[in-house]
Design brief:
The structure holds two protein chains of two kinds. By secondary structure, chain A is mainly α. Chain A has one domain. In chain A, helix 1 packs across helix 2, helix 1 packs parallel to helix 3 and helix 2 crosses helix 3. The longest helix of chain A has 19 residues. In chain A, 29% of the residues are buried. By secondary structure, chain B is an all-alpha fold. Chain B is 58% helix and 0% strand. Chain B contains eight helices and no strands. In chain B, helix 5 crosses helix 8. The longest helix of chain B is centred in the middle third of the chain and has 21 residues. Classes of the chains: A mainly alpha, B mainly alpha.
């Protein structure tokens, strides 16, 4: 086992870190990996955004309720 | 149990934005969309929404403006759903399809090479700064949530939307900590990939 995580392991730890504190070794290894890996930094940013948005589902003020056509299409195709 | 037939009519005497019929219908539809994502029995979703609407109606002056009414109603619904999940007789019943853990397609299949590195560059997302792009991103996320295997989506919603901690989710659903972690990981990666595929990229591949 190398000291550095694979991207696959990094993604698992990124998800886990949103739910519970990582142990120190994992945390350090993850930080080193992220410092060297642009892909994983993008994944980190995206998982963080999804985490933040998850709490806001339904509470983002959608005052006029007019949904954009692309979204309507998305919903339709999802129901098929 | 199902009170769907007794659709609640807003009292005509209360002059409040939410009591216009169209707003009322929209509010109800919005709540139903969220409730259905969280509970698997349609009748129960209807009941929870109905109770939330009653709570809104009982205090018509608590909020001004439809946007805040919407937010407020969603908060009430969230509490009702959380209470339902926490009621003792719901224990473990929620997880109806345990096989899904094993049989569902892992969204990360084919994503990595043999060394566990991404086969293709991960595109970055444009940060949704303007309200319009935030709204659009939220709609895409909701659409992507519906495409997740239903139990996976529900665990994600329990964690992120209801704000349960993972220990409580595991306990309520009778899952091991390992399974919980894996399901949440799959949910997030599945959403990430779906949302990326929906075009929320800057196109700037690193």
């Amino acid at each position: 086992m190398t000291f550095l995580h694979s991207c696959q392991k990094a993604a698992e730890l990124l998800s886990q870190s949103l739910d519970e504190p990582l142990d120190l070794i994992d945390k350090l290894r993850l930080q080193v990996h992220l410092s060297m890996c642009g892909n994983c930094r993008n994944v980190e940013e995206q998982l963080n955004l999804i985490h933040k948005m998850g709490a806001q589902i339904g509470s983002l003020d959608l005052c006029d309720e007019t949904e954009t056509p692309s979204i309507v299409n998305l919903n339709r195709s999802a129901e098929r | 149990m199902n009170k769907q037939s007794e659709a609640i009519e807003p009292p005509a005497t209360v002059s409040h934005p939410v009591t216009s019929e169209a707003s009322w219908v929209r509010l109800r539809q919005r709540l139903l969309r969220h409730a259905r994502m969280m509970v698997f029995e349609p009748a129960l979703a209807e009941d929870l929404v109905q109770e939330s609407l009653v709570a809104v109606l009982e205090q018509p002056n608590a909020h001004r403006g439809e946007a805040s009414i919407m937010t407020w109603a969603v908060a009430i619904l969230k509490n009702k759903i959380a209470d339902w999940y926490r009621s003792p007789h719901q224990r473990r019943r929620v997880w109806v399809d345990a096989d899904e853990i094993e049989t569902e397609n892992d969204p990360t299949d084919g994503l990595y090479d043999a060394q566990g590195s991404y086969k293709e560059a991960v595109p970055s997302w444009q940060q949704p700064e303007r309200q319009e792009s935030q709204r659009q991103m939220m709609s895409i996320m909701e659409a992507c949530l519906k495409r997740l295997p239903s139990q996976t989506g529900r665990v994600f919603m329990m964690r992120e939307w209801l704000g349960f901690d993972t220990a409580e989710i595991c306990e309520r659903l009778g899952l091991s900590a390992e399974n919980c972690r894996m399901i949440l990981h799959r949910a997030r990666m599945g959403l990430r990939q779906c949302m990326t595929a929906q075009g929320h990229t800057t196109g700037s591949i690193q």
